[in-house]
Design a protein that fits this description.
Radius of gyration: 15 Å
Number of strands: 3
Helix content: 25-40%
Number of helices: 3
Distance between the termini: 44 Å
Structural class: alpha/beta
Largest sheet: 3 strands, parallel
Order of helices and strands: HEHEHE
Oligomer: single chain
């Protein structure tokens, strides 16, 4: 029997899988996502399951969007978690390890 989607069209299985993945990640990277104030489901999911992150990286040219993500998630992160902000994706490349370092 398949599950019925909620009002946003997302099944419970998808939410459970997302929570499981988020709870076991060391880093979370937002690229271009603004986490709108109306997206209360995603805000709740993220606040519950980001407590083990070491790094939150936000890539967005809009400083208000970057600030919103930081405000929503800051209190859920462990004190030692790093938060980094970039305006553009091309700034992300130099932060990645080179193939020789992998």
């Amino acid at each position: 029997m398949s599950q019925q989607p909620n009002e946003m069209g997302i099944t419970l299985d998808l939410w459970v899988a997302a929570r499981r993945l988020l709870a076991t990640r060391e880093a979370l990277i937002f690229v271009g996502y603004s986490l709108p104030a109306t997206d209360v489901y995603t805000q709740a999911l993220l606040r519950i399951d980001v407590s083990e992150l070491d790094l939150l990286l936000i890539v967005n040219p809009d400083p208000l969007a970057r600030g919103r993500i930081k405000r929503v998630l800051h209190s859920a992160l462990r004190p030692s978690a790093r938060i980094a902000e970039l305006e553009y994706i091309h700034e992300f490349g130099p932060l990645l390890p080179s193939p020789e370092e992998s």
